[in-house]
Amino acid sequence: VILGASESGKSWFAKRLVDRLSAAKPVLVWDPQAEWAGPDADAGIRGARCFAGVAELCASLRAGPPAPGARLVVQSARRGDFAALCRLAYTAGNLAFVVDEAHQVLKADRCPREAEELMQVSRHRRVDLVLIAQRPTGIGPDFRDNKAECILFRMPGEASLQWVRAEFGKSVEERLRAMPARAWIRLT
Ligand SMILES: Nc1ncnc2c1ncn2[C@@H]1O[C@H](COP(=O)(O)OP(=O)(O)O)[C@@H](O)[C@H]1O
Ligand SMILES: [Mg+2]
């Protein structure tokens, strides 16, 4: 889980993380702002193929399975596409699934059933989830609390800082309060 204010450097961090991932697994990216690859990319990832929706991605997969380390970027903000992508990740298994702007699609009270189902079986299905959100409370507790690792960027807002304190202690909260943009703390 990668958390931080808008413009704090979360997506940049996650893009470089994906660039370093081994070619052992394909990577699916939910990219609602079309910034991970393609004409509007901002420091985009290497070796990506962009799709305007899950129908386009599935059409391409019907022609043959992706290469092991393929980077498949879905550039859509439609909720139906997100649900379909969760279902695809669930069915395929053995991949990494990056959800940028997760607060838009994984809110506690408004997240697709397919996302909950994926979360429940992700370890079993060997799906590595990378969830990127502006605030800890922006994503439902099922998604926030099952993390193996947390990257914290600058995060103003007392509710967020109190969550950090409850989760990781006072010293982490104090470091976070003093942190500039683009700096981050990694917690395992
Ligand atoms: N470590 C970095 N080095 C260089 N540029 C960076 C770095 N981190 C972020 N940026 C740039 O700063 C801007 C905001 O970063 P971004 O990752 O998009 O923020 P966020 O996803 O948190 O809103 C982007 O233009 C991005 O390319
Ligand atoms: Mg971002």
Description of the molecule:
The chain has 188 residues and is α/β, with parallel strands linked by helices. It has 7 helices and 8 strands; from the N terminus they run E-H-E-E-H-E-H-E-H-E-H-E-H-H-E. Strands 3-4-2-5-6-1-7-8 form an 8-stranded mixed beta sheet, sandwiched between helices. Strand 3, helix 2 and strand 4 (71-74) form a beta-alpha-beta unit. Helix 3 (79-92) packs parallel to helix 4. The chain is globular and about 50 Å long. The structure holds adenosine-5'-diphosphate (ADP) and magnesium ion. Magnesium ion (MG) binds next to helix 1.
Q: What would you say about this model in short?
A:
With 188 residues, the chain is an alpha/beta fold. The chain has seven helices and eight strands; from the N terminus they run E-H-E-E-H-E-H-E-H-E-H-E-H-H-E.
Multimer state: single chain
Following the backbone from N to C, one meets helices and strands in this order, namely EHEEHEHEHEHEHHE
| Form type | globular
Cα distance, first to last residue?
A: 10 Å
Bound molecules: adenosine-5'-diphosphate, magnesium ion
State the low-pLDDT regions, or none: none
- Strand arrangement, major sheet: 3-4-2-5-6-1-7-8
The biggest sheet, with number of strands, parallel, antiparallel or mixed sense and barrel status, is:
8 strands, mixed
Derived structural class: alpha/beta
